[in-house]
Amino acid sequence: MASTIRVRATSNGDITEVQALIQHPMDTGFVKDAKGEIIPPHFIQRLTFEHDGKPVFIADWGTAVSKDPYVKFSFKGGKKGDELKIGWLDNKGATDATSAKIQ
Amino acid sequence: MPSRNDFSAARRVILKGVGAVALIGLGNTALGGLPALAAANDKYPEEAFKQKSDADAIKALFGKPHEASDQVKLDAPEIAENGGVVPISVTTTLADVTSIAFLVSENPNALAASYQIPPGTVPAVANRLKMAKTTNVIVIVEAGGKLYSATKEVKVTVGGCGG
Amino acid sequence: MISTMRARFMTCLASAALLLAACCGVAPQASAAEAPNPVADAKAFRDYFTKKFPKVKLEDFVNGPYSMNEDMHRQWEEKEQFPPYEFALEAGKEMFAKPFKNGKTYADCFANGGIGVRQNYPIFDEKEGKVITLELALNRCRQANGEAPYSYVKDEMASLTAYMAFTSRGKPMDINIPNDGRALEAFEEGKRYFYTRRGQLNFSCATCHVQSPGERIRAEVLAPALGIMNAMPIYRSEWSGMGTTSRRFTSCNSQIRGVPLEPQSDEYRNLEYYLSYVSNGLPISGPGARP
Fold it and tell me: Domain range holding A75?
């Protein structure tokens, strides 16, 4: 099955910029469905990015992060061709992980 | 709000992750498992996310006071096009940044996101947050053990929490 | 002899004049000045907007409310770095390539395999004598190949049209009105629908999108009608998801408290024909993101 994680990582030789877009409902638990019942909270709690075996960015999220969440950050190091590992864990215990090559 | 059971399930997965990370450390690249879930410096700040006010959330997350700093540049729109997806970002010229957190004052729970910045990572983050209504967005930057902040009011006409 | 020739010549001229008058008198108003003239209409339409917004570049009109408001434009630019329609676009690409049960694909139903053709839609089908929109063509393709049609307003239809629009990105809208009375009539019908007031709020499409682009209706900034089809289908924050032209037309009708028509009803097809034609030359920007 296709990953929920889309990543774009580009290095200018010195700094690697990473953008990620993840397919996830990020339900807040405040919204009701068509039947009038509360849609329970369902959101990514932790998202990690790893390069060369070390975390380069860790996101702790609550329900106020938008649906299909997006994040952008940069880190020093990382060369074209290096692998970036990304993984998330949500409040229901579900996870997804992927890896992407730095362009 | 995640129930006790939900989070214990999460802890179980994290513990599984410990094994995965250890195996990766031993050179078992075929695993390709979840990176760093257990290796993360701090555990998920569940209590801070539960707090209602920004003051309580900051207290739960950091336990220190913060001061406004013009070295923290918060970028957010004047009027959010839609409260459900408000692009907000921060950059800072402060040194030794270890953590960046975003709060939306009048959201049901003020803390929106908290980011850990390991050494070597640029202290700048762009994300998209939900805002329930017109209110202040506060960004906290932890640098050299101290907290610095910037605040900006963002007008919201169509609330982001389903309204 | 010469007088007879002149007489015959004069008779010829007279009959020619009568014939000409008869041709021009086909339209209800029955006067030469009211004859359908899509070329003139398109020029007048474009001139109206470029005069009203001299600082907006012609190709930027396709960005809807973002071309009208600086603060919104910046928010849009940030989101376009990794746009919300990304997933629908990917899904559309996969769907488009997947063969039907009978082994054929969407590519078999379209010129150039459906790649880079979106800017020609809607097309006037001279056999049928009606306007065929892209959404209609896709469902007809499905039905011709033994597949059930998709809903016109979102999901698969939005993903498929998103992909087809993406393959045409940057190409100028290029709608053709053949020299066929029925095609001209469809254009005129579309124009009539656009300018007719309806619903409890008694608004026409023009009320918002010609009279008031850039201004607010409650909390929303209104898009200009010029180029308004070029970004379709769109991911709307308001919908938290994708929607097609059909979705937009039906929801617009609901919003002015009118009764929405069935998707792909004649009125909507003609409306899309008119709106697309008067935006000829402006680039396809779809799929798009909107508030």
Answer: 5-49+70-101
B77 contacts in C (CB within 8 Å)?
71-72, 74-75
Active site residue C252: yes
CB contact under 8 A, C78 and B87: yes
- Judged by DSSP in three states, B151 sits in strand
Residue B15: the pLDDT is 39
Q: Are C228 and C275 in contact (CB under 8 A)?
A: yes
Is the pLDDT at C78 greater than 60, yes or no? yes
pLDDT (0 to 100) of residue C126: 96
**Is the residue at A61 inside a domain?**
no
Distance CA C158, CA C67 (A): 24
A 3-42 residues with CB below 8 A of B? Answer: 15, 28-32, 41
CA Rg value for chain B: 17
Going by C-beta distance under 8 Å and a sequence separation of 6 or more, which residues neighbour residue C70? none
Mean pLDDT, each 10-residue run in order, chain B (163 residues): 44 40 33 45 90 97 97 96 94 98 97 97 98 97 98 86 52
Give the closest-approach CA distance of A55 to chain C in angstroms.
23
Chain C residues contacting B, CB < 8 Å? 71-72, 74-76, 78-79, 84, 218-219, 237-238, 240, 291
Q: What is the CATH number of the domain that holds A22?
A: 2.60.40.10
Interchain CB distance below 8 Å, A66 and B120: no
Whether residue A24 is contained in a domain is answered as yes
- The confidence band for C34, taking pLDDT boundaries of 50, 70 and 90, is confident
Contact present, C96 and C142 (Cβ < 8 Å): no
pLDDT for A33-49, tens place per residue? 989 999 999 999 999 99
Contact between C71 and B79 using a beta-carbon 8 Å cutoff: yes
Q: What share of chain B is helix, strand, coil (3-state, %, to 5)?
A: 25, 35, 40
* pLDDT at residue C86, as a whole number: 94
Orientation of helix C155-167 relative to helix C245-255, angle to 10°: 120
In a domain, A59, yes or no: no
Q: Which residue of A has its CA nearest to C83?
A: A21
Q: Which residue of C79, C85, C87, C238 to mutate against A (max A Cβ within 10 Å)? A: C87
For the domain spanning C34-291, the CATH number is 1.10.760.10
Q: What is the pLDDT of residue C157?
A: 98
**ipTM entry:** 0.96
- Using the Cβ of A42 and the Cβ atoms of chain C, whether some distance falls under 8 Å is answered with no
Residue B99 identity: S
Segment A61-75 mean pLDDT: 97
Active-site option among C23, C141, C208, C252 = C252
A55 within a domain of the structure (yes/no): no
The stretch C204-225 carries a mean pLDDT of 93
User: How far does C78 lie from chain B, in Å, by closest CA?
Assistant: 7
Return the pLDDT at B41. Answer: 55
Number of domains in chain A: 1
Q: Parse chain C into domains and list their residue ranges.
A: 34-291
Give the global pTM. Answer: 0.83
Distance of alpha carbon B66 from alpha carbon B151, whole angstroms: 12
